[in-house]
Amino acid sequence: MTAAALTLSSPSALLTEGTPAVGDDHQRLVAQLQATFQSWVDTVSLGKSLQDTYRQLYGVLENCSRSDWDAYGAEAVLPESYENAKRFARSLPFSLSSPEVSADPDGEITFEWYSNPTRVFSVSVGPNNELHYAGLFGASRAYGTEVFHDEIPEVILSHIKRAIL
Amino acid sequence: MKFLKSFFLTLRERFSKTQSPPNLKATVDDKENLARYIFSASHFSRKASRVKAEAYMPSRGEVSVFRIDGLDQASIWGMGADVARKRDRTLYARGDTKAEDVRKVGLDIRPDEPPPRHANIIGWPENDKPRQKIIALELAAVATLVLNE
Question: How distant is the Cα of B13 from the closest Cα of chain A, in angstroms?
């Protein structure tokens, strides 16, 4: 692993930063980066949190991929939501503790960081690029919607840190 | 014969207990206890002994609950077990709240029988997921987790 790689803040940065190459070179570069990313995930020190999140995500997909999974008429978790949720998890900074993962009745996947009943932050990821979030921070609260492309919006990262620090 | 008699007596007792008693009001009092049955293992945390907000997120604008005042634990779990059996699901736990906690976050409770003692938490913001989430977080913060053990 190079010093440059160590300065990256999240696994997804490895796949998106830098100047893109073209043609076969590009394909080879992407494959190498993905292999490097996977080796990071597989290491105990750097990948434990992400592995844990992936394991929870897979459990949600397994248990919530048919409608009415909650016995109250919930919608099924779609593969697109699962892929977006994986992308979201991959974009989280290494420094954050792993969230608890579950599903909403509308089929979106929720990531939650919990310290106590009044210090908790939750983000829902669906089949599109919207992130619906809400958080309790003692006497304060925050909620809203952000768009998710390749990086997690700063406002969401700041709320996560607020909930767990 | 004695066994059959005992069986039917127990059945009748269970059945009569979970029926809405005549004194159950048409409106829900603030001090009434409401149970939200939980059929998803990811909607509560055994380790932190808490109900997660996702358990209180609305489906089609409401959250289904049962009015449990005046019932013993066996009868409360019996109502949830009926739902689990009909839906072929596992009943893991329940979240208990008071009606006043629901009203404090701007929602209301509307009795909706059958089944007996059933009600819905209503008044959720429409098509506004972030606001639904913040309300669900506030409800979960005051809910008590009771495991089905």
Answer: 27
Output the CA–CA distances (angstroms, integers) from residue B42 to A53, A57, A63, B75, B97, in the order listed: 13, 11, 9, 25, 19
CB A14 within 8 A of CB A40: yes
DSSP state of B69: T
Q: What is the spatial distance between Cα A98 and Cα A92, in angstroms, rounded to a whole number?
A: 9
pLDDT digits (tens, 9 = 90+) for A22-54: 567 767 666 666 666 666 566 655 578 888 999
Give chain A positions within 8 Å (CB) of B137: 120, 122, 134-136, 141
Contacts of A135 in chain B (CB under 8 A): 134, 137
Q: How far is A11 from chain B (nearest CA, A)?
A: 26
Please name the member of B37, B40, B136 whose beta carbon is closest to the beta carbon of A69: B40
Q: What ipTM does the predicted assembly reach?
A: 0.84
Nearest to B137 among A74, A101, A136 (CB): A136
HEC assignment per residue over A74-89? CCCCCHHHHHHHHHHH
The nearest alpha carbon in chain B to A134 belongs to B134
Put simply, the answer to whether A68 touches B45 (Cβ < 8 Å) is no
Per-residue pLDDT reduced to its tens digit, B4-24:
545 444 444 454 455 566 667
The closest of B4, B53, B97 to A134, measured between CA atoms, is: B53
pTM flag (> 0.80): yes
How far apart (Å, rounded) are the C-alpha atoms in residues B65 and A102?
21
